[in-house]
Specification:
This protein is about 35% helix and about 15% strand. The protein is α/β, with parallel strands linked by helices. The chain has a single domain (about 25-190), classed as Glutaredoxin, CATH 3.40.30.10.
């Protein structure tokens, strides 16, 4: 009787591990349409969970559209690079989030080979958040500009990366951790 029970348990585990007759294909990262992502918690941007099982960040919809390069919400750094037709990697981050250090390490190591081809523009969103105690808007003009930019681009999580090609078109939008292979592929797509 024990052998029969043990055989059933092993068979059940084996079937559940193999997917019970699945097609044998793996699913890619889910595409999250812009505007359908959940709202950030009160008090600021939510950190995208760092996953060790899914090494690819979910890609966001909104690629192939022009990156905003004019208006009061656009920092001068972006306007200058867009005018010079320079590809950009725009990073929105919160230094208090644990995944920020991992993402920054991947970006720095990937950009070593592509210096001069693509510029990294990093924006700290912590100064752009309203004061949690009073609810007042950001104090500095620069922080307010970053807040307006995050709102206009629907940035709801940190870290958040937007790749922009030389024509000012968004070629990729990613939230959370992005591994080196995907990062380098997106850099190549933005620089070609």
């Amino acid at each position: 009787m024990r052998r029969l029970v043990a055989a059933l348990v092993i068979a059940t585990v084996a079937i559940s591990l193999t997917g019970c007759g699945g097609s044998g294909t793996t699913t890619s990262a889910a595409v999250v349409p812009a505007g359908t992502q959940s709202a950030p918690p009160p008090g600021g941007l939510a950190a995208a969970p760092a996953s060790t099982t899914n090494l690819f960040s979910p890609s966001e919809a909104g690629t192939g559209v022009p990156f905003p390069t004019s208006g009061t919400s656009i920092p001068k750094e972006i306007t200058v690079r867009a005018r010079n037709h320079q590809p950009m990697l725009v990073l929105f981050y919160d230094p208090t989030q644990p995944s920020t250090k991992d993402v920054r390490t991947e970006i720095d190591s990937s950009l070593k080979a592509y210096r001069g081809l693509i510029d990294l523009l990093a924006f700290d969103v912590t100064g752009a958040l309203p004061d949690a105690a009073t609810g007042k808007a950001p104090k500095s003009a620069e922080a307010e500009q970053v807040a307006l930019l995050t709102q206009s681009l629907n940035v709801g999580f940190t870290p958040y990366m937007i790749f922009v090609d030389k024509n000012g078109v968004i070629t990729g939008r990613f939230r959370g951790y992005i591994d080196r292979k995907l990062l380098e592929r997106e850099i190549l797509k933005a620089t070609q």
